[in-house]
Write a structure and sequence with these properties.
GO terms for molecular function: beta-glucosidase activity. By secondary structure, the protein is an alpha/beta fold. Among the domains are: 226 residues, Glycoside hydrolase family 3 C-terminal domain (Rossmann fold, 3-Layer(aba) Sandwich), CATH 3.40.50; 161 residues, Galactose-binding domain-like (Jelly Rolls); 119 residues, Immunoglobulins (Immunoglobulin-like, Sandwich), CATH 2.60.40.10. The protein is 22% helix and 28% strand. It has 18 helices and 40 strands. Strands 12, 13, 14, 16, 18, 19 and 21 form a 7-stranded antiparallel beta sheet that branches. A 6-stranded mixed beta sheet has the order 9-27-26-25-10-11, with helices on both faces. It has a 5-stranded parallel beta sheet with strand order 1-2-3-5-8. Strand 6 and strand 7 form a beta hairpin. It is globular and about 85 Å long. The protein starts with a helix and ends with a strand.
């Protein structure tokens, strides 16, 4: 698209409009020039569509740590292709994914969204994901560029690191993705790098991304991750998201133009790049861009099978004492299932990764459906582990008897009275987010009434919880039960912009419906005064609006544990299913500790004491503490595995799938063993990246139901291009797959390097007992490079490099030495 076209045909107001957005999910159309709007949607583990409020059901894939655990580039490329089809069915042509930040600490709220702690593995996984997505014409938006590795003070914190750490670790996966897959869009992170916000950083966006890496696509901000007008435009940020824009308005842009802090030619450059991108996405997907705009849901047996396979391939078998797994009929007749996640729908982390799944297979359902004949399965809770009370959509019907509850919007008259109803919707979720949708016709202040009938299947006390960003009250059978309206306590709900969960307990009768009414308003309560008479706001005005209603049966916690122990004593084996939930791992805040929430650790220890055949299955996006490791027989890391979680877990437990997953990160024994410790939070506005670690389980670890051996290792070298082949033989009794990992140890040339660096991996699939296959691994100059801070270049030193080949960083089966005869440097890709 030529500059003359931009100057001659697009008015200044239209140029400004193009650099912002009209809403949360679309680019700005220019009807008079037939420039369409193109739509984007959140990933990265599924495509939610263009509404938080009334989401169209979607397929939920496993989280990024699960994907990385496959070590299978072909499979991840397939996942990208799958997500492309999901994106198009939601009338979108841009997926806001993948996330390839570094899992610097497992406590990071979005750790589950990122592939690995290792920059090479992260970059290869991201490349395969992007390649699959874009092969079908859907634009990837790789994020968050760069160092969005924790959530604490994420919009302000300054990541303080050396240039070498920035290049070799945090930029490296983005660089690999650009080199191998060329994403069509980048999204900037919220924070700062060495003092400058990433969305305003010309060295990052222009110097590195465009000049060094030759990126030609668009750069967009994270949502509300733009902090001014001229700095971001001058740095190279094409698109401020979401809309309507806060900064790229005619008044503000013209103000900085008149002050000559921004040149008209810069506006033209940003618009040209954006229009080129819109044109390319329109030509690739005309049937989507010019389609009916409706969002739909895909489902078929083939789709479900792919989701199930993808989930199972990411599961990591961490421990298997006495070959307790797979569960077999000749050893187990009575199986106890215990744990807070067993019957819960824990499929994803929270925040922008969350979506409404078209269906969910819980672990209990999967195990029950997948069990061998005559296995007696019993269940008990054991303990709760929620942060917020579980959502209640499965127990609600509308006043007219439909599943869900009824949302009715009202405006406010001048005297404060409500108008007649403006719009009604039936929602099948008690998480109600209002940030990206409001019906037309509302006044500045407005009210939402959520009504329904709540029916439970057990008589007894029932605890309810109401959390808001805004103000709300809950009535049960017309009785005010929770007041989160008059006075509020700030909490971390809705990215830290809402309240804590206010709770109340009511007595409910089995199968007797009670009327539920939540009245919500978008306005905030008036300021309160503290004991000294100082005015204190109850809640800060927020960009987000919404509410959440939760609830569950009130239990005697001690009795719940004793019931679990008694069941364990009367069973042949126990499967405990626990871990975290989207309320513990989410965008907006970091985890407080490695510990499993609630009394899970106590329950696991008691179960193991009662029954030595106790297997622990953890659903979480990153590492958790396992003080009970030496007391249990089996440990299965199931991650967040998407809507097929239950079936995938069952497939591994019963041996229908031989696990082949490998850890993409090190599991520390305690918080002090996290490599980044103690620099886990922002302190006085800075996060110091001054990264030894005492692991619980090492990087690359993962067991199988069979055994493998390496032999016939051959190395062929041409300068820095090195090929390593190895024969992998299944020496066990059942079929299985295995990952071959190659680590490089650099020579001592006065520069400190990690002892081992992953530089290649490969996977052999479905080897029958006794069979073998050859794996081929390739190294190149990047496999031996480091960043020379004195010359600001990549450098390879002449010398002897040691190649460690095996099945994890601690299971090395063969060592080879290669010699590089000369040193050299370069910049760019």
């Amino acid at each position: 698209m030529s500059r003359s076209f931009i100057d001659a045909d697009i008015a200044e107001l239209e140029k400004i409009a193009l650099l912002g957005a009209p809403n949360w999910w679309n680019t700005t159309p220019i009807p008079r020039l037939a420039i369409p709007s193109i739509r984007m949607s959140d990933g990265p583990n599924g495509v939610r569509g263009s509404s938080h409020f009334a989401s169209t059901p979607a397929q939920c894939l496993p989280c990024a740590t699960s994907l990385a655990s496959t070590f299978d580039l072909d499979l991840i490329r397939e996942a990208g292709e799958f997500l492309a089809a999901e994106t198009k069915i939601k009338s979108s042509v841009i997926l806001l994914a993948p996330t390839c930040n570094i899992q610097r600490s497992p406590l990071g709220g979005r750790a589950f969204e990122s592939f690995s702690e290792d920059p090479y593995l992260s970059g290869r996984m991201a490349s395969a994901y992007v390649d699959g997505l874009q092969s079908q014409g859907v634009s990837a938006t790789i994020k968050h560029f760069v160092a969005n590795d924790q959530e604490h003070e994420r919009t302000a914190a300054d990541s303080v690191m050396s240039e070498r750490a920035l290049r070799e670790i945090y930029l490296y996966p983005f660089m690999l993705a650009q080199k191998l897959a060329k994403p069509w869009a980048f999204m900037t992170s919220y924070g700062r790098i060495n003092g400058i916000h990433c969305s305003e950083n010309p060295r990052l966006l222009q110097g590195i991304l465009r000049d060094e890496w030759k990126f030609t696509g668009i750069v967009m901000s994270d949502w509300y991750g733009t902090y001014g007008v001229d700095a971001a435009l001058n740095a190279g940020l094409n698109l401020e998201m979401p809309g309507p824009p806060r900064w790229r308005t005619p008044i503000l842009v013209n103000h900085v133009l008149s002050a000559q802090k921004l040149l008209p030619s810069t506006i033209d450059e940003r618009v040209t790049t954006l229009l080129t991108y819109i044109q390319q996405q329109t030509r690739r997907n005309p049937e989507v861009v010019y389609g009916d705009g409706k969002e739909r849901t895909r489902d078929s047996p083939e789709i479900r099978q792919f989701c199930r396979k993808l989930a199972a391939q990411g599961i990591v078998l961490l421990q298997n004492r006495n070959d307790i797994l797979p569960l077999r009929a000749n050893r187990v007749r009575k199986l106890a299932i215990v744990g807070p996640n067993a019957k819960a729908s824990v499929i994803s982390g929270g925040g922008s990764a969350a979506l409404k799944a078209s269906y969910i297979i819980t672990p209990y359902q999967g195990i029950k459906d997948g069990a061998f004949t005559d296995l007696q399965i019993s269940y008990t809770l054991g303990c709760y582990a929620h942060k917020y009370l579980p959502t209640l959509e499965d127990y609600l019907t509308t006043p007219s008897g439909e599943p869900g509850w009824l949302a009715t919007f009202y405006g406010h008259k001048e005297n404060g009275e409500l108008t007649s109803p403006i719009a009604e919707f039936v929602l099948n979720d008690t998480r109600v987010k209002l940030n990206d949708f409001l019906p037309a016709g509302l006044t500045k202040d407005w009210t939402l009434k959520m009504t329904g009938k709540l029916t439970v299947d057990k008589t007894g006390p029932f605890e309810l919880g109401l959390t808001v960003a805004g103000r709300a009250k809950l009535w049960i059978n017309s009785k005010l039960t929770i007041d989160n309206w008059t006075k509020q306590t700030p909490g971390d709900f809705f990215y830290g912009q809402g309240t804590i969960e206010e709770k109340a307990t009511v007595q409910l009768e089995a199968n007797q419906a009670v009327d539920v009414l939540v009245e919500y308003t978008n306005s905030y309560p008036p300021p309160d005064k503290d004991d000294e008479g100082t005015t204190v706001p109850n809640a800060q005005p927020a960009l987000m609006r919404g509410l959440r209603l939760g609830g569950c049966e009130s239990i005697d916690a001690d009795k719940a544990i004793e019931d679990a122990v008694k069941l364990a004593e009367d069973s042949d084996a126990v499967v405990f299913i626990g871990g975290l939930t989207p309320e513990w791992e989410s965008e907006g805040f970091d985890r407080p500790s490695l510990d499993l929430p609630g009394r899970q650790a106590e329950v696991i220890t008691r179960l193991a004491s009662a029954n030595p055949n106790t297997i622990v299955c953890i659903q979480a996006g990153s590492a958790t503490a396992m003080p009970w490791k030496d007391e249990v027989a089996g440990i299965v890391q199931a991650w967040y595995s998407g809507n097929e979680s239950g079936n995938a877990i069952a497939d591994v437990l019963f041996g229908k799938i031989n696990p082949a997953g490998k850890l993409p990160l090190t599991f520390p024994k305690r918080i002090q063993d996290i490599a980044a410790y103690p620099n886990l939070r922002s302190e006085q506005g800075k996060i110091h990246y001054s990264e030894d670690v005492m692991p619980l389980f090492y990087f690359g670890h993962g067991l199988s139901f069979t055994k493998f051996e390496l032999s016939d290792i051959k190395t062929t070298q041409s300068d820095t291009d090195i090929e390593v082949s190895a024969r992998v033989q299944n020496t066990g009794s059942v079929a299985g797959s295995e990952v071959i990992q190659l680590y490089v140890a650099y020579p001592d040339k006065g520069i400190t390097h990690p002892p081992l660096q992953l530089k290649a991996f490969g996977k052999v699939h479905d080897l029958a007992a006794g069979d073998s296959a050859v794996a081929n691994l390739k190294l190149d100059k990047w496999s031996f490079a480091y960043w020379d801070e004195r010359k600001n270049q990549w450098k390879v030193e002449a010398g002897r490099y040691v190649l460690h080949i095996g099945f994890s960083c601690k299971d090395v089966r063969k060592v080879e030495v290669v010699e590089l005869e000369k040193s050299f440097t370069w910049t760019g890709l």
